[in-house]
Write a structure and sequence with these properties.
alpha/beta; Rossmann fold; 5 helices; 5 strands; 19% strand; binds 1,3,4-trihydroxy-5-OXO-cyclohexanecarboxylic acid
């Protein structure tokens, strides 16, 4: 089974970015532990700060990946195009947010992506990615 994690803008700075909200662990370090926990799964990873690159990655994954875990960062709240890309593919997409977006500013409570996804996970820190893997495994 092959899964792809897509992280959007500013998530390359996890570990040093607003640690009170996003924690002190880098995503690379967390990903290593996730890969160790799921040795039977091919866990691919893509991060981009560029909206079009995220859309291209979603299109590509729609052809050869069993499931996508998507944290589109701030594009979640602004990008109709990323929502459309999720709707355009048959591959299941699980939305993840590290922070509880519903406990934050009002603009973060709008998602152009959630309704197009199989489900959405918010507020469990980096553990949310593991919960997303589990949800895709339960569906396979
Ligand atoms: C985030 C929440 C977004 O509102 C924010 O813009 C991010 C990270 C999260 O993982 O909690 O960049 O997606």
């Amino acid at each position: 089974m092959k899964l792809l994690i897509i992280n959007g803008p500013n998530l390359n700075l996890l570990g040093s970015r607003e640690p009170g909200t996003y924690g002190t662990r880098s995503f690379e370090e967390y990903l290593e532990s996730l890969r160790k926990a799921y040795r039977d799964i091919e866990l691919e990873y893509f991060q981009s700060n560029i909206e079009g690159e995220i859309i291209d990655a979603i299109h590509k994954a729609g052809k050869n990946i069993h499931g996508i875990i998507l944290n589109a960062g701030a594009y979640t709240h602004t990008s109709v195009a990323i929502g459309d890309a999720v709707a355009a593919i048959a591959t299941p997409v699980v939305e993840v947010h590290i922070s509880n977006v519903f406990a934050r500013e009002e603009f973060r409570q709008i998602s152009h992506i959630s309704a197009k996804c199989a489900g959405s996970i918010s507020g469990f820190g980096l553990k949310g990615y593991r919960l997303a893997v589990e949800s895709l495994l339960l569906n396979s």
